[in-house]
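Lay summary. Proteins are chains of building blocks that fold into shapes, and those shapes determine what they do. In this project we predict the shape from the chain. Here is one chain we studied, written as its sequence of building blocks.
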Amino acid sequence: MNDSSPPPLRIALSGLATLALIIGIGRFAFTPVLPMMQSDWGLTLAQGGWLATANYIGYLVGGLAAMRSPLRPRIAIRIGLLTIMICTVAMAFSQGFAAWLVLRAVPGFASAWVMVYASAWVLEKLAEADRADLGGAVYAGVGIGIVVAGLTCLAILALGRNSDTAWIALGVAAFIIVAFVWQVLGDDMMSAGPEARTKGTARRVPEFWRLVLCYGALGLGYIIPATFLPVMAKQIVSGPIWFGWVWPVFGAAAALSTLVAAHLGRCVSKPTIWIRSNLIMAAGVLVPIAFPNVIGMAISALCVGGTFMVITMVGLQEARSIAGPQARTLMGAMTAAFGIGQIVGPGLVSSFLHLPNGFSYGLVASAVPLVIASYSLSSHRGNRLDAAAAVTK
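And here is the predicted shape, written in a compact code that computers can read:
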């Protein structure tokens, strides 16, 4: 590790804070705010689906852009963080569906952009310092961000305030995070890194497309419950405070799960963790169909929240392990595939809403790709070492 690099713990904390902002707030804060916007502005569920889709389209484009971007990590991450912070606050001062579409699409782009850049940089620096074990703490940031967003919205509800207040409060939280991370983006990030010199060769990495497609299955697999669980809970529980707790539970499960998975990674392979997490998530996605009540919502939140960041973490760690210096290109392709899955998900919900029990069809459609990806990963698990060996030759 370079002498100019920040200490490993500080790098991990900055990664945690970055993911808390770009995913927990920049992307998923919309989930607990959506029921509030429905009450304040008469936003329909179908419109909520389109706003979510706008964010996911931005995420897809951001992942593709990060694959070929010539920007240095420090500049790219700072631009993305500022963009998300500004758009979060702007949601409170804009009115109209068209404006909301733009303000959801732009943070989606910035989230994927920063996710790829920050993951590549943080994982590289931790590996150089022989502290890869801190990866679990880094990816716990997403769950922590979700908890912060969920508890903020619960507090706003308890105070009887509206969705505009929630967006302002989340913008303040974003500002605090940006101020902290800004200090860690030091001079050592001025180097573009070896991936910038070899970024055109990543598609020759063995297992490239398998990782891309299996990671894309996660995008479709988790997005319907992740986006609409609070809305589903609202239809079952009349009290806003009670259904509002679904999202913080989801986030807490996401935060704790990455720490547990990082510990398990010392004795269980990453593909095995990925496979088991896929199957647990698939089961959690289907639980509300069999148990359409508060208990079913809680189990679903735990299963989906407790696995989606584990899969994200081990997937990106596998990308770095297999692709080496071409990791940013592979991560960008995986993120783009993830974005495609997310775009399809809300559209499925919207298309099923006119049918009786329309949500159930959407949940089944979410679970199927997870099972298929598990089978694919299981049947080709032995190729992982061969792939890694081929890259290092």
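What the prediction tells us: The first helix runs from residue 8 to 25.
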